[in-house]
Amino acid sequence: MESVVNRQILFEHFAGKSSPLQKQSIEEWLKKPKNQELFYLWLLEWETQHPQYNPSVEKRLQDFRQIMEQTDQDVITLVDDETEQKSNIWLKVSRIAAACLIISLGSWYFKDHFQYQIYETTFGQVDKIQLADGTMVTLNANSTLKVPRFGFGTKNREVELSGEAVFSVTHTPDNQKFIVKTKRNFDVVVLGTEFSVFSRDRGAKVILNKGKVRLEYQENQVKKEITMRPGELVKLDISNHVQKDTAKTFDPIIAWQQNRLIFEDTNLFEFTQIMEENYGVKIKLQNDSLAKRTLVGSYKAQNAEELLNTVVELLDLKLSKTGNTFVLSEK
Question: Over the stretch 295-315, which tens digit does the pLDDT of each residue have?
Answer without folding.
Answer: 888 888 888 888 898 899 988
